[in-house]
Amino acid sequence: MEVSDLWQVMRIDRYSFSTPWSEESFLREIQNPSSVTLVATLKSREVVGFICASCTAEEAEIKTLAVRADMRRRGVATALMKEAMRRLYNQGCKKVFLEVRVSNTAARRLYEKLGFRIVGVRRGYYIRPEEDAVVMSRDLYPPDRQIDS
Ligand SMILES: CC(C)(COP(=O)(O)OP(=O)(O)OC[C@H]1O[C@@H](n2cnc3c(N)ncnc32)[C@H](O)[C@@H]1OP(=O)(O)O)[C@@H](O)C(=O)NCCC(=O)NCCS
């Protein structure tokens, strides 16, 4: 993800979430050396999806992920997640966590398919609308042991 991608990233973000990130939040991620920020693009750098993740000590967190509505269900999020996990592993991360709305069936299925399992619930974690978060996690492996499920 580059600064010049942000107008497209933020358009997808605003469409996808009720509490989109500010430009400053994306800029902080891009500039943070322990973050992994990726975009999926078509020709002419047309952005169709993005992911932001970060690594602290040996634990990583997927902070946000979205795919443009007309490009969903084609494996874009799967590709972004796999590449982010590969890079997080190479940065020394051993485990990755994420939060997802209880009602977000699409994302929960995606994560389950990638080998994530539920490890907890955060009550009232989300606003607009208020909702619990499911906390999911999986271990990270070297590329030749990557579990795709
Ligand atoms: C969740 C999201 C990122 C998935 O992106 P995507 O590119 O469509 O995902 P993929 O094509 O890689 O899907 C992989 C698998 O996830 C599951 N999945 C994805 N979308 C689904 C849906 N709408 N309903 C049910 N399962 C779904 C399926 O198992 C799918 O595999 P399949 O197509 O072979 O059945 C996308 O729907 C999105 O941007 N949603 C809004 C933002 C969001 O919720 N982000 C996650 C926040 S935690």
Structural notes for this entry:
This protein is an alpha+beta fold and 149 residues long. The radius of gyration is 15 Å and the shape is globular. It contains four helices and six strands. It has a six-stranded mixed β-sheet with strand order 1-2-3-4-6-5, sandwiched between helices. The model has no long low-confidence stretch (mean pLDDT 95). It is 30% helix and 35% strand. It binds coenzyme A. Residues 16, 65-67, 72-78, 100, 104-107, 109-110, 113 line the site of coenzyme A.
Descriptive tags:
alpha+beta; Aminopeptidase; single chain; 149 residues; 35% strand; binds coenzyme A; six-stranded mixed β-sheet
Furnish the topology, listing elements before pairings.
Elements: H1 6-16, H2 23-31, E1 35-41, E2 47-56, E3 59-67, H3 76-90, E4 95-101, H4 105-113, E5 117-126, E6 131-139
Parallel strand pairs: 3-4
Antiparallel strand pairs: 1-2, 2-3, 4-6, 5-6
Bound molecules: coenzyme A.
Write a short abstract of this structure.
This protein is α+β, with helices and mostly antiparallel strands and 149 residues long. It has one domain: Gcn5-related N-acetyltransferase (GNAT) (Aminopeptidase), CATH 3.40.630. The chain contains four helices and six strands; from the N terminus they run H-H-E-E-E-H-E-H-E-E.
